[in-house]
Write a structure and sequence with these properties.
heterodimer; A: 3 domains; B: 221 residues; globular
């Protein structure tokens, strides 16, 4: 009977949409009921992280029968656009008035993932969420967050704080090299997520090295280290887009503060933070570092309600629940529209398999 | 061609292709200026050293262009060899610079031990590093530089070739002036740490490029 129902035209799509709706509404309901954000957001984020590659690879096979993209398809602008390329595009666009990503500005039949749509979507979301994009919009972060959630306790506890600066160094290096070479250097050499999305067809020693780097970085930073540290290590130690996105934490309306009058300090927030954005110095200063991605882990972990959501320009701790709700409404609305549609599209494909 | 015409052409070529020259040199220049964390005036002095080194690189290349005529552009092997060696030089000097920046001053013990000598060497290298890096970046074959090389090779004599590169250098150097503004970032201590890490990353990138290019030359000729 299930198969017969599924065989009706559009049924898989309706079922996927309904399942996604129930999933997202249930999570939001739990956020309201328990007054906790991080745990429930994580269910959504991990689902997005693991379902996005499935749907994306599915689409690649449907379009071109392979995960690898040959150079000639790149040259014809068939590479799906990814937001990670945005920081690299700015200088070449200013200097050479060219878009260095080998994709298409507007959607085409062979490449529906156009540059213009993604840039517009990213910009709108970033203005409101700041680095909250990395907690609600990034379709890669959920993979490592999923792996980080598996162990009960971290095996590696002490991490040299200087590693925190690495994403900024990677950002500086790739922005400068992209301007010099007019190529998206990060996508070509360092992106760990090429291993689970698409990669240049391995036809030479150079492309074999590229593939080796992608797989090594993926296994090391997205799988192994999150399992050992319970942190989002790729976001913390490599992702240049995350560093770039941190700048927009200055423009967003919401942030997290640590109320000095309530803080002991027990540093539970430091342990909970998945991106090493809270240090003893940051606690003393009353706010996390610029790299805070507003996931809410510190707020949920704080037993004295010292870590609070905050609207810029208001008193710290005066209306933290109102600040949480306002941040959550905008973030969750974006998550439903962007991430929800990705989840629904992949579920539709998976439900279609059941027929 | 009369000298005035040659100089004007070189200057205009430098001015028009300056942004591309700047883009080619920024991966080396920006981290070096940012890592030192000097005042805008000190950064300006560093920039002048870098540009001086770059001018020396240009003039050395001008001699090479004149000696080899157009053959450098026409023979892929020669082109790859210069490109590979320049990348290898950049990788070594960038990594050495990043290491030298981490080395503490050599004054402490006064005894002639290997560690003290290494520190002294690091200190000396650090004070000349911007000149050396400027020289090696001057040898890197960016597209405007190759265009200037071709034109200089056709200019008729070594003197003309050198003069052409000198005026080409003046034209491009104007575009480098705004990088003095990096001196304003010195109040952020993190900028120095990030710049040093960037130097290591860039050294790795250039080393890999050199390996690929020189490997091809060795294997395929």
């Amino acid at each position: 009977m299930f198969s017969r129902t599924m065989m009706q035209p559009g049924c898989a799509a309706k079922l996927a949409a309904a399942a996604t709706l129930v999933f997202m509404v249930a999570l939001f309901f739990q956020m309201m009921r328990t007054l906790q954000t991080y745990r429930w957001r994580r269910y959504f984020f991990v689902a997005l992280g693991f379902l996005f590659p499935v749907g994306f690879i599915w689409q690649l096979f449907a379009l071109r029968g392979s995960m690898s993209i040959p150079v000639e398809r790149m040259l014809s602008g068939d590479t799906p656009f990814c937001f990670l390329a945005i920081p690299m595009m700015i200088l070449p666009a200013a200097i050479a008035r060219t878009v260095i990503f080998p994709g298409s500005i507007l959607p085409t039949a062979s490449n529906p993932h156009a540059i213009a749509a993604m840039v517009a979507l990213w910009f709108a979301a970033t203005l409101v969420l700041g680095k909250g994009w990395c907690s609600y919009g990034c379709f890669f972060g959920g993979i490592e967050e999923g792996f980080a959630a598996i162990p009960k306790k971290p095996r590696i506890r002490r991490i040299d704080p200087r590693w925190r600066w690495m994403p900024w160094a990677v950002l500086a290096a790739i922005v400068l090299l992209s301007a010099a070479t007019l190529e998206p250097v990060y996508c070509m050499w360092l992106c760990p997520f090429k291993a689970v999305t698409e990669y240049p067809a391995v036809r030479s020693f150079e492309t074999a090295v590229q593939m080796g780097i992608f797989i090594t970085l993926f296994l090391g930073l997205v799988v192994a280290l999150p399992l050992l540290t319970k942190k989002r290590t790729q976001c913390s130690f490599l992702c240049p887009f995350g560093a770039f996105q941190s700048i927009f934490n200055k423009t967003g309306a919401f942030d997290i503060r640590i109320d000095q009058s309530q803080c002991k300090p027990c540093l539970l927030c430091e342990k909970a933070c998945p991106t090493l954005s809270i240090t003893p110095e940051a606690v003393r200063a009353g706010k996390p570092l610029l790299s805070c991605m507003k996931c809410g882990a510190c707020v949920d972990a704080c037993v004295r309600d010292a870590a609070v959501w905050h609207i810029k320009g208001t008193d710290v701790g005066a209306s933290s629940e109102r600040a949480r709700l306002m941040q959550l409404y905008s973030a969750w609305a974006f998550a439903v529209m962007f991430g929800g549609s990705i989840i629904a599209a992949t579920l539709e494909k998976l439900f279609g398999l059941m027929v | 061609m009369p000298l005035t015409g040659l100089m004007t052409e070189a200057l205009l070529l430098g001015l028009s292709s300056g942004p591309v020259c700047l883009a080619s040199c920024t991966p080396v220049l920006v981290p070096v200026l940012a890592a030192e964390q000097k005042s805008p005036r000190g950064t300006g002095a560093l920039l002048a050293q870098f540009l001086g080194g770059r001018l020396a690189g240009y003039l050395a290349f001008a001699c090479l262009a004149w000696l080899l005529g157009l053959s450098l552009q026409l023979q892929p092997r020669g082109h790859a060899l210069v490109y590979g060696l320049a990348d290898l030089g950049l990788a070594i000097f960038l990594a050495a610079y990043a290491l030298a920046m981490r080395t503490r001053p050599a004054a402490a013990c006064g005894q002639p031990c290997p560690a003290a000598r290494a520190r002294l060497f690091a200190q000396r290298y650090r004070s000349f590093a911007s000149v050396i890096l400027g020289f090696v970046s001057g040898l890197t074959l960016c597209p405007p530089f190759v265009a200037a090389g071709v034109r200089a090779a056709e200019s008729g004599g070594l003197g003309h070739s050198l003069l052409f590169f000198l005026w080409f250098f003046f034209g491009t150097s104007i575009w480098f002036a705004p990088s003095v503004g990096l001196g304003m970032l010195r109040r952020f201590a993190a900028v120095g740490v990030v710049a040093r890490l960037t130097l290591f990353l860039l050294a790795g990138y250039y080393a890999y490029l050199a390996l690929i290019v020189l490997g091809r030359v060795v294997l395929h000729g």
